[in-house]
Amino acid sequence: MDYTSIKKLYESLALKNEFICVASHELKTPLTSLMLQVEMVKRFMDHHGADAISPVKVKSLINRTHQDVLRLSRLVDDMLDISRINSGKFTMNYEYFNLDEFMDDFLDKVAYSQIRKKINAPILVKWDKFRIEQVMLNLLNNAIRYGEESQIDVEVSVEDNLAFITIRDYGPGIPMEMQKKIFERFERGDISKSEGLGLGLYISQEIIQHHKGKILLESEIGKGTSFVLQIPLT
Length: 234
What we know:
2 domains, 5-stranded mixed β-sheet, Heat Shock Protein 90, Helix Hairpins, 20% strand, alpha+beta, single chain, globular
């Protein structure tokens, strides 16, 4: 085995170890939260009986549990996606759908009051609908998390054979040194606001590249950040 092969092997092992370390840490947080919630309710029921739990407390418990389960689900999905990418089994399921209708339905589901939309794309596209929604959700979540509750603009337009989807926030922006590596694996923005494995943008870029498109980043300190999806219609 030559030096290059040995180097690649060590790099691969280091990457796997880093992935296991980050994944274990991120999975432990919602699991610990779930365990504590269940333990507290169990102790309360053992002492006072199930009938003593008020509807308000039950609702609060269900909401917290639901959030932790969603977080676990997202982490597992990211882990599965990165495994598929590494094994070459990350495939797309392309179908025709109306881009205007897709965007309206997606933004209705997100239901974030600070979104201002400008959609002008009454055209059929042939994309993987589920995967494009995954990219959109990741970019919107980032804009909400790091945009510091600023207005978020979502614009969609079509030019020639390309669709342009822009998600823009007016938060603090991304430092230049972070912009250069933000699409790498395990990279996250402000750690104090981060959740997940730091794989969202990496996976999003893989999805858009499978559609023969690009993700463009524009950001300026103090003025906000824009992610632009540039995707061929078919």
